[in-house]
């Protein structure tokens, strides 16, 4: 997977401005849970399953839901990620849509 | 020079809303030489305002005024501030739609007879049958340019997205696979071009191949000299005379100034939330429960446009964005429950 260098700001940056306390308290709470269970900060936990288990504990809370919502929109609304990560070719009307550019070019031999 | 009618001109029909109902009516009246004033709460957009970008279009054309929700959990918890995704713009929700133009099936006119009482529902048969409505389906399909028998336009070629769905559907035994009927031209029709299979066209067709009053009925009605569209004009109250007949509409313009447009008749075409809201807000001494509400049912029985989405990861690239959003229909399950 290519790793594009983003020129736009990460989607979470505005959150740090608008909801600084919520984010700071949420991160502190997550690290406290990590240290209780694993004796280290959240980002130092190696196994994804362990990290996911911690996130499950807080998934219904405001902190997690706020970050999640912002990331989902920010991720898919970031045009720099469209082509390399999602295969989305972007706005197409400028090129006359896909009528002559493969809207029905799929040959399904894999179902 | 655009047509202007005076606020005290009581010879005009006032139409509230410029979408499927209001925009169509304005053009139908204009053809008969009847003058109308269309009050549209939203702004007016041009073709070059239409982008293939879902989020940009959402922020541009959606009705984002604060609304409260009540009722089922799925609605109140998932979309507390956005109970209905409708459009606030000249053209209304005919800008944002997939173009899928299905008819009711005959049994759907007899829901209560077929299904009986359903707890919590307020189910009735329609007072008309499929046969009564059939000629009007044909008329509407010709007006909108719906692919299929009424217009003679072929259904769309299957795009990649539908090819995958159809292949899976056939594997589980479904038979009724169609790429229409859709109000999206597959050839030039009604002076509008054919579908170019762009991406994210649900939020507006840049080429005008999908029917929308935004670029069909409304500009034609205006060009006739019999219609004036007032964007950013939010209807507040319908007034009536001592016989109970509508005589005027009070509305507020984009600068916050109130006006009263007199009318020979008033058509309410403001979609599922704003129409009943306006009728209820138009209560008076003669109609304490709101206008057109002798039944007490105005503002009740709201039925949301229910959708559910399933996404799947395929073994190889599909390019699902290439082409119309709703590329096909599998209708084997659109039938009465088996008894």
Structural class of chain B: alpha/beta
Oligomerization: heterodimer
Q: Low-confidence parts of chain A lasting 5 or more residues at pLDDT below 50?
A: none
Helix/strand class of chain A:
mainly alpha
Characterize the main sheet of chain A.
none
- Overall shape of chain A: it is elongated
Biggest sheet strand order of chain B reads 4-2-1-8
Total strands of chain B: the figure is 9
| Proportion of residues in β-strands of chain A | under 5%
CATH class of the domain at 1-95 and 212-301 in chain B: Alpha Beta
Q: For the terminal residues of chain B, how far apart are their CA atoms?
A: 63 Å
Relative helix content of chain B: 10-25%
Q: Please give the most extensive interface between any two protein chains, plus how many residues each contributes.
A: A-B, 22 and 30 residues
How many alpha or pi helices of chain A?
5
Task: Please give the alpha-carbon distance between the first and last residues of chain A.
Answer: 25 Å
Ranges of chain B where pLDDT stays below 50 over 5 or more residues in a row are none
Known CATH architecture of the domain at 1-95 and 212-301 in chain B:
3-Layer(bba) Sandwich
Provide the gyration radius of chain A in Å. Answer: 20 Å
Count of extended strands of chain A: 0
Write up this protein.
The complex is a heterodimer of chains A (111) and B (339). Chain A is mainly α. Chain A contains five helices and no strands. Chain A has helices at 13-18, 20-38, 48-58, 62-76, 79-86. In chain A, helix 2 crosses helix 4 (62-76). The longest helix of chain A is centred in the first third of the chain and has 19 residues, at 20-38. Chain A is elongated. The two termini of chain A are 25 Å apart. Chain B starts with 12 loop residues before the first strand and ends in a 9-residue tail after the last strand. Helix content of chain B is 22%, strand content 12%. In chain B, the strands form three sheets. A four-stranded parallel beta sheet of chain B has the order 4-2-1-8, sandwiched between helices. A three-stranded antiparallel beta sheet of chain B has the order 5-6-7. In chain B, strand 1 (13-16), helix 1 (22-31) and strand 2 (36-39) form a beta-alpha-beta unit. By secondary structure, chain B is α/β, with parallel strands linked by helices. Chain B has a domain at 1-95 and 212-301: 3-Layer(bba) Sandwich (FAD/NAD(P)-binding domain), CATH 3.50.50.60. The A-B interface holds A 73, 77, 87-93, 96-99, 101-106, 108, 110-111 and B 50-53, 55, 157-160, 163-164, 167-168, 171, 195-199, 206-207, 314-319, 321-323.
């Amino acid at each position: 997977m290519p790793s594009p260098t983003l020129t736009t700001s990460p989607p979470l940056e505005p959150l740090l401005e608008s909801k600084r306390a919520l984010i700071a308290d949420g991160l502190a709470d997550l690290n406290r849970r990590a240290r209780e269970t694993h004796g280290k900060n959240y980002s130092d936990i190696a196994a994804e399953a362990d990290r996911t288990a911690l996130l499950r504990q807080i998934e219904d809370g405001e902190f997690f839901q706020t970050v999640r919502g912002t990331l989902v929109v920010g991720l898919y609304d970031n045009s720099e990620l469209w082509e390399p990560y999602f295969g989305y070719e972007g706005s197409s009307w400028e090129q006359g849509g896909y009528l002559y550019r493969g809207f029905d070019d799929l040959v399904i031999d894999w179902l | 020079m655009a047509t202007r009618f005076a606020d005290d001109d009581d010879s005009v029909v006032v139409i509230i809303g410029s979408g499927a109902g209001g925009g169509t009516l304005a053009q139908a009246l204009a053809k008969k030489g009847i003058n109308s004033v269309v009050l549209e709460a939203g702004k007016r957009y041009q073709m070059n305002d239409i982008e293939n970008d879902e989020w940009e279009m959402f922020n541009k054309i959606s009705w984002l005024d604060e609304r409260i929700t009540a009722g089922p959990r799925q609605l109140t918890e998932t979309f507390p501030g956005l109970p209905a995704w409708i459009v606030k713009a000249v053209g209304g929700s005919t800008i944002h739609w997939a173009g899928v133009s299905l008819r009711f099936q005959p049994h759907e006119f007899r829901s209560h007879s077929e299904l009986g009482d359903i707890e919590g529902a307020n189910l009735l048969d329609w007072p008309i049958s499929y046969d009564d409505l059939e000629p009007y389906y044909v008329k509407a399909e010709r007006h909108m340019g719906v692919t299929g028998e009424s217009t003679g336009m072929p259904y769309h070629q299957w795009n990649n997205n539908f090819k995958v769905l159809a292949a899976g559907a056939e594997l589980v035994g479904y038979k009724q696979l169609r790429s229409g009927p859709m109000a999206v031209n597959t050839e030039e029709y009604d002076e509008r071009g054919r579908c170019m299979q762009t991406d994210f066209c649900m939020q507006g067709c840049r080429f005008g191949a999908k029917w929308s009053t935004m670029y069909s009925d409304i500009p034609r009605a205006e060009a006739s000299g019999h219609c004036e569209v007032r964007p950013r004009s939010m209807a507040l109250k319908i007034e009536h005379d001592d016989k109970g007949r509508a005589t005027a509409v009070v509305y507020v313009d984009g600068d916050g100034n109130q006006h009263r447009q007199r009318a020979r008749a008033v058509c309410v075409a403001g979609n599922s939330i704003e129409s009943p809201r306006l009728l209820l807000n138009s209560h008076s001494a003669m109609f304490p429960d709101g206008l057109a509400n002798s039944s007490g049912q105005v503002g009740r029985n709201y039925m949301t446009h229910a959708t559910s989405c399933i996404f799947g990861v395929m073994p190889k690239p599909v390019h699902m964005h290439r082409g119309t959003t709703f590329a096909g229909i599998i209708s084997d399950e659109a039938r009465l429950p088996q008894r």
